[in-house]
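So, can you check this record?

>
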Amino acid sequence: MPSPTRSSTRLARAAGAERMALLREREKLTRRRDAAARQLATVERQLAEVQERLELIDRLVPEAANVHPLPARPAADGLRGAAIRQAAVEVLRGRGPGPIHYKEWFDAMGAAGHAIAGKDPLAVFLTQLSRSPVVRRTAEAGVYELDRTAPAALRARLERLHARLAEQSADRDERDRLVAEIAIAERALDEAERALGDDAVDPAHDDARATG
């Protein structure tokens, strides 16, 4: 039968070996953690730089938000960008297309289960309303409504822009400007048609039916 001293010695050796293995594992994990922290810091700096550039573009050229927008999808902490505009129109269409104060509209978004990302969700919501091609302000302060004629108006604008582009042959700067405006209008039209669906109205078509 092993003596208590021998058993104690073997246990101490086994525990010591296990302890050394754990120390090595801790050191390895610490190095991995530090490397990940450095990578995260780099990503955070890059994100901050990208955000600054986006904010600069939005200040200088607000219409650029409608050119090549990111797919409308909810972020982990709520809706952003085009996803806010899409959800807002859906909520108002479900409620009825009449005028609505933006605070009431914001509350309706929350009631429908739509959270908005950002430090000031109400301000973000209001900014996105101003960028929607199918939302317009009324004469009453803070009150908005759907512009169901937006798709027809955008199609007419595109026709005029294409006509002006066809007339330009020598002025390269003017052609580039028109091409950029056409791209913006096309994106706005695509968003307007998707947002309004069957609720869109064509005044010219309605006038033709009325006089027919």
